[in-house]
Amino acid sequence: MSAVPAPTTGAPTPAPAPRRVEVPPPSHSALGHVRATVVFLVLALLVSGFAYPLIVTGIAQVIDPSAANGSLLTYNGTVVGSSLVAQNTDAPWLFWERPSLSDYNTTEGMITAYGPTDPALAAWFNETLAYMREYGNFTVNATLPIWFVSPSASGIDPDLTPEAVLVQVPRIAAATNLSFDFLTGFVNAHVANPPIPGIGVAYVDVLQLDLDLLPIIGRG
C-alpha cells in the first residue's frame, strides 16, 4: 500500500491570470477602403500626371528637340506655325493646302466628311470645277488629284502628294512670273519620300514650301 504524500506548507499556488485575447480590427472597414483609394489616386496622379510626362519629354528633348517642342516653323525669326498643322492660305501666289472642313481649327477635332446626298458636296464639286476653269493645268490633263480636293483624316494635315502640288504650278507661275520649269524643280526639291520604300507615299509639306517661296517672290 502506497504512502499518502504529506500536505505542503506555505502560501497556496495562485491561479493563472486570464489570457488576453487581441481582437483584430475589421479587415474591410469603410475607412480602410477610403484610405486605400486616396493613396492610389495620389500615386496615379503623380506617376501619370507628372513623372511620366517629365520622363517622356526629357527623352524627346534629347532625341529630337524640334519635334518635342511642336515642330515649329519660323520666318524672319518669328514663329509662324507648325509643320504638323496646315493653315488657310488663299493667296494666288502661294501653294494652297489640303482643304479642311473645320477651317484648320485645331480645337474642333475632325468633322464628318460630306455624304453623297449632302448639298455641301455639290458645292464643293462646283468649287473644284471653278478652280480648273480659272487656273487649269494642261500638264496633267486638266485633272485635280484627290488629295487636293478632299480633307485628311485630321482635317489639318499640311502635306500633299507631289501631284497635288504640281497641279498648282500654272496658277503660281501666272501670279509670280516664275517659269514652269523653276516652280516644278522647286516643288520636286521639297518632296519627302517615305522612310521605308513601298510603305507610305511621297509628300510635300506645303506650309514649309510656301515659307521657302516667299523670299523668292519678294513677299517675305
How would you describe what is shown here?
The protein is mostly helical and 220 residues long. Helix content is 42%, strand content 7%. It contains eight helices and five strands. The protein is elongated, with a radius of gyration of 37 Å.
Topology:
Layout: H1 30-63, H2 65-68, E1 72-75, E2 78-82, H3 119-134, H4 146-149, E3 159-160, H5 162-166, H6 169-176, H7 180-188, E4 191-192, E5 203-205, H8 206-217
Antiparallel strand pairs: 1-2, 3-5, 4-5
End-to-end Cα distance: 131 Å
Q: How much helical structure, as a percent, in the residues?
A: 40-55%
What proportion of the residues form beta strands (DSSP E)? 5-15%
Q: Tell me about the largest β-sheet.
A: 3 strands, antiparallel
Please tell me the overall pLDDT: 77
* Global geometry: elongated
Number of helix segments? 8
What is the topology, as strand order, of the major beta sheet? 3-5-4
- Low-pLDDT stretches are none
Protein structure class: mainly alpha
For the CA atoms, what is the radius of gyration? 37 Å
In total, how many beta strands?
5
Order of helices and strands: HHEEHHEHHHEEH
Keywords:
220 residues, two-stranded antiparallel ribbon, 3-stranded antiparallel beta sheet, 5 strands, single chain, 42% helix, mainly alpha, 8 helices
Summarize the structure.
The protein has 220 residues and is mainly α. It has 8 helices and 5 strands.
